[in-house]
Amino acid sequence: MLFVNKYFLLQNVNLGIICTINKNGVQTMPAKTLNDVVALCKRRGFIFTGSEIYGGLGGAYDYGPYGVELMKNIRAAWWNVMVYSRDDIEGLDAALITNRLLWKYSGHEGCFSDPLVECKKCGARMRQDKMRDETRCDNCGSLDLTPPRPYMLMMGLSIGATADGAVNAYLRPETATTTYTNFKNVLDSTPHKLPFGIAQIGKAFRNEISPRGFVFRMREFEQAEMQYFVHPSTDEKYFQMWRDARLAWWINVLGIPAEKLRLTPHEKLAHYAKAAVDIEFEFPDGFDEVEGIHNRQDFDLGSHTKAQDELNINAHVMPNKDSTTKLSFTDPQSGETVVPYVIETAMGVNRTMLAVMINAYTDEDLGDGKSRVVLKLKPRLAPVKAAVIPLARNMSDQVELAHQIVDQLRSLGIGRIELENSGNIGKNYRRHDEIGTPVCITVDHQSIEDGTVTLRHRDTMAQERVALSDVSRRVMEIING
């Protein structure tokens, strides 16, 4: 056995699964497959199949009571570091439906497609660039495939009484483009000098050929994107800064171990990009992208600006005769006018939630045939921050005191606090282990006698007796720890 970081590592030769024995002597094991997490999501109310009672719809999922909370906490963690902790980034929430011209000049209408291949034997449709073998059907192995053809990823809409079914608008396929078209609005209403950024979290829609990996690739998903506008001479400096800052956020805020993350530069750059790197997480079936950091040069503002010939645009852009606004920055001191370069950070919120759950999922062997599944989430991310449990649900004095503690904790504004009153303390603990609740507070006979309660800690299962007057302080310490 190899001793590493105060934990023993055991290699299960048959399964190839890394087990650990923690400092309490408990053997732990991560999720073996994605199915472990999928089952937990359904069982404990994180994620459900969309329109499930009618057979579902590929690539569509509904977020249940605890999934809603975890997503909200991830958004808040991102927004806090991007907007609330800085003076140079503003927030935005743009429309999902926009003027069609926006997508024409961004290049999406003409180029936003995937190579579609169909199997003539079984009828399966696949993205050629995602196939295991581009010559063989992923489903049945047949070599009889159609030549690849472009497949439009944007979802078209017919809006207005006179549209007659014709596509005259789109659901946005990303949040970034509506940020670029609001560049001047934000600059004029909240004056900034370069560099400054605009952050946005919101829904996006793509007509995926083959949604896959649970919530990894969907047709309706959520993005957290930030566009950082910089002077062209400083682009490389800020690209490196944001690459390092975003990787640190995954480690320090989300609690993902550094060894489960890697930075992968793009081997082939998009036509607009000067540099690009993906943050990849180690999912059960291998590393895959969860966030991208891109140096987009002046392509985006240059594509949407009017008077393109008056500006020194470096990127190759489509001539724009429809824009009504010059998207440039003039330095008030030097008088220099530039079209800013854009350093973009783009994170999939759904993928992030999945990565966080996979990382936190722990299957512990407690011995004597007993085990438990626990989500060892960072306390600030946990859907439920604390659960209060009266030991005897038919004892009115215990239940009343439990309600008082719940009200006290809810007044702190730290998130969801639950009153758990099913009467079986063991099952209550196991349920809250599985949804990641950091601490359970048990009210019992002694609580009525001496004004103390038991705090039971999720990760260690250790218990401590504290006075009622100390409950709020201890819970805050746990959440902020």
Could you walk me through the main structural features you see in this protein, from its secondary elements to its overall organization?
The chain is α+β, with helices and mostly antiparallel strands and 481 residues long. It has three domains: 2-53 and 357-367, no CATH class; 58-106 and 172-348, 2-Layer Sandwich (BirA Bifunctional Protein, domain 2); 382-480, Rossmann fold (3-Layer(aba) Sandwich), CATH 3.40.50. 27% of the residues lie in helices and 30% in strands. The chain has 13 helices and 28 strands. The protein has a seven-stranded mixed sheet. Strands 1-2-3-4-22-23 form a six-stranded antiparallel sheet. It has a five-stranded mixed sheet with strand order 25-24-26-27-28, with helices on both faces. Strand 9 (113-118) and strand 10 form a beta hairpin. Helix 2 crosses helix 9.
Task: Summarize the entry for a quick read.
The chain is of the alpha+beta class and 481 residues long.
**Shape type:** globular
Give the count of structural domains: 3
Task: Report the major sheet.
Answer: 7 strands, mixed
Q: End-to-end span in angstroms?
A: 31 Å
Radius of gyration: 26 Å
Per CATH, which architecture of the largest domain?
2-Layer Sandwich
Which percent range fits the helix content? 25-40%
Number of helices: 13
